[in-house]
Design a protein that fits this description.
646 residues, alpha/beta, Ubiquitin-like (UB roll), six-stranded mixed sheet
Length: 646
């Protein structure tokens, strides 16, 4: 049977007709109403709760709903089906956009000193002057173009797509047989071969920018660099939350959402494409050139890094096998694609290079990160950590590389924390708490009133709260602490970092017991990952020469505070190096230099992947690390000394 579902949202009413047993979440999507489903529609988070005011529904699950909630008509939209005509009130939805106000805190990127466009770049701009056809020379347009490329640039074989082939006759005549060809060189041995990307009806300035983009698809954040392929210069850097986050804050939730229906998979693909395309438009608008503005369709080359799940969802490839034993990807080495095939708003013929991954939970973001960090060229044993949602780790040197991954969750990237945000203007990035008064002092990025707390601020706050006794080693808030900032909140004990009168929103900024639990799980997963990896190959952590820390907030971490909460191993601070977003930087190197791109493939082949889920020692290490800093204080002598001093 068909039923009418009437939604009331933002003081507007929208009615749709759906069959019996349709989920309220699906009906809302038909109505064009965005419902937050951070757990991927599994009914675990309770964030898609709506109120059924009239009509008949059936609740498959009431998790996180009290008896009073149910009596008032509340239901989880992802777990409730329609059984008659119903009216539904949709409460205001949390908008993750509020946590990302600007991305202009990235640094200047230095063009590699050895970059030479003529020898390193696969994309070429070639000026051609063709002899016009005549009654004596009736060579067809495509053959004429191929002959000119062979004579002037020794391209023995050139491929072309049908849409571009349909246009070349008009372009040649519009340019009066003087044109600029843009080609992707695909082979150098036994005579060069190439694919025609674009044909332009004039001779362009040889040194005018030729545009490419490097993209990192993070589980939480998508980053994009707009690059001139001629000079190697990065002209714009932009970042935004991955649009998929509304359907799952971790990769497993997203895989499950995408696997429910074909429409779910297509939605997840479109969400990340929309994120990339939006960032590209923003990046183009930021570039000011004397010769005019940059438009997305001028981009002729794209390199993309991301973990294996993000890559599968981007390509519309079913990812369910990633989460099911034996945890195998559909593809680790994706063939070259075009902008048209990908659905990107770049030149339709642009070459799109999805960088290679290693395994289900170690993807192209890590191979790109190893390249940009230089780990694969180092003499001494080095530990590389990507402190992000998936907590990937690589241990090794120029002779060997082993890797693993663990699900850390998005807490350190601002998601899953009540007042979390990225490291942008208005974020609290450092906290000090007076041990006598328990009053905090905060440093805010950009100055001014705080809007929330970023990853480095959360690490600092957790450390200070532990050292001053506001929380114990299990993360429990000491409600007997002599301060009005320590109080009972809606989610248990909490500590007020900034009173409402001090913040931009006018509301208190707090850290709750739930936030603390999320942070403890994240740090425990990361610590357990690299300790188990080191134990597996028989390398004591204290013998590791250097620890390289990647991740979008890596360069802002206070080492002392990170050690005090048990996120990083307790060793001399000089052995730590913080690199920032190594994934997008690796994608940038691959965009510029074919030799470095080949090196990424070699890195992927060299890595030995260790599946932690098959090892009971990981669970034991994770459980032991769920405390501040650890159940075994002897692993953290500097923290033990600080506690004894207090």
């Amino acid at each position: 049977m068909e039923h009418t579902v009437t939604f009331t949202h933002d003081d507007k009413q929208v009615a749709v007709t759906v069959p019996t047993n349709t989920l309220l979440a699906d009906a809302a999507q038909v109505a064009g109403i965005e419902l937050s489903q951070p757990c991927g529609g599994q009914g675990r988070c309770g964030r898609c709760a709506v109120q059924v005011t009239t009509g008949q529904v059936r609740r498959r699950s009431t998790l996180r709903l009290s008896d009073a909630d149910i009596a008032d008509g509340y239901a989880l939209a992802c777990q409730t089906v329609v059984e008659g005509d119903v009216s539904v009130f949709v409460p205001p939805q949390e908008k993750i956009e509020r946590r990302l106000t600007t991305d202009r805190v990235v640094g200047e990127v230095t063009v590699p000193a050895d970059y030479d466009y003529q020898t390193a770049q696969t994309v070429r701009r070639v000026h051609l002057t063709l002899t016009p056809p005549s009654m004596d020379d009736q060579t067809d347009d495509w053959s004429r173009l191929q002959i000119a490329l062979r004579l002037q640039r020794r391209y023995e074989k050139v491929d072309i797509s049908l849409p571009l082939l349909q246009r070349i006759g008009n372009i040649l005549r519009e340019g009066n047989w003087e044109v600029t060809a843009v080609l992707q060189t695909v082979a150098w041995e036994d005579g060069q071969s190439a694919r025609l990307i674009d044909l332009r009806p004039k001779h362009e300035d040889e040194y005018a920018p030729l545009w490419g983009i490097a993209v990192d698809i993070g589980t939480t954040t998508v980053s994009l660099w707009l690059v001139d392929l001629i000079s190697g210069k990065v002209h714009a850097q932009v970042a935004e939350y991955n649009g998929q986050i509304a359907r799952g804050e971790d990769v497993i939730s997203r895989i499950m959402y995408a696997s429910k229906t074909a429409a779910g998979g297509q939605e997840m693909r479109q969400r990340v494409l929309d994120s990339i395309n939006s960032l590209l438009e923003t990046a183009c608008k930021r570039v000011k050139l004397e010769g005019g503005k940059v438009t997305p369709d001028q981009v002729v080359k794209v390199t993309i890094a991301g973990n294996s799940t993000m890559m599968h969802l981007l390509l519309g490839i079913p990812a369910n096998s990633i989460r099911l034993s034996p945890f195998v990807t559909a593809v680790n080495h994706v063939p070259l694609l075009t902008g048209r095939e990908m659905g990107l708003k770049v030149n339709p013929e642009a070459v799109v290079d999805c960088l290679p991954g290693v395994a289900s939970y170690v993807g192209a973001d890590i191979t790109a990160g190893v390249l940009s960090s230089g780990l694969d060229t180092m003499d001494n044993v080095t530990l590389f950590l990507d402190v992000g949602t998936n907590g990937e780790t690589v241990l090794g040197n120029q002779d060997w590389l082993v890797t693993c991954a663990c699900s850390a969750g998005p807490a350190f990237e601002g998601a899953g924390v009540v007042n979390g945000m990225r490291a942008t203007t208005g974020a609290i990035e450092e906290v000090w708490i007076n041990s006598d008064t328990l009053e905090p002092t905060c440093r805010v990025i950009g100055g001014g009133k705080p809007k929330g707390i970023c990853g480095s601020g959360l690490i600092s706050l957790l450390s200070e709260a532990f050292i001053t006794g506001i929380i114990d080693k299990g993360g429990n808030v000491n409600l007997d602490a002599p301060s009005p900032r320590v109080r009972e909140g809606a989610h248990g004990g909490e500590y007020v970092v900034a009173w409402g009168k001090e913040t931009e929103s006018g509301e208190d900024i707090v850290i709750t017991r739930v936030d603390i639990d999320n942070l403890l799980r994240a740090k425990a997963a990361i610590y357990a990952g690299f300790t188990v990896l080191a134990d597996t190959v028989g390398i004591p952590l204290e013998t590791v020469d250097k620890v390289l820390v990647g991740g979008s907030f890596g360069k802002y971490i206070n080492v002392e505070k990170a050690v005090q909460i048990g996120l990083l191993p307790d060793m001399d601070w000089s052995r730590f190096e913080f690199l920032g977003n190594t994934s997008v930087k690796g994608a940038y190197f691959a965009l510029l230099d074919r030799h470095k791109r080949e090196r990424i493939t070699e890195i992927a082949k060299r890595m030995t992947y260790i599946e932690l889920s098959a090892d009971n020692s990981f669970y034991e290490a994770f459980t032991s690390a769920l405390f501040l800093p650890h159940t075994d204080l002897q692993k953290f002598p500097s923290v033990q000394a600080a506690l004894e001093k207090k």
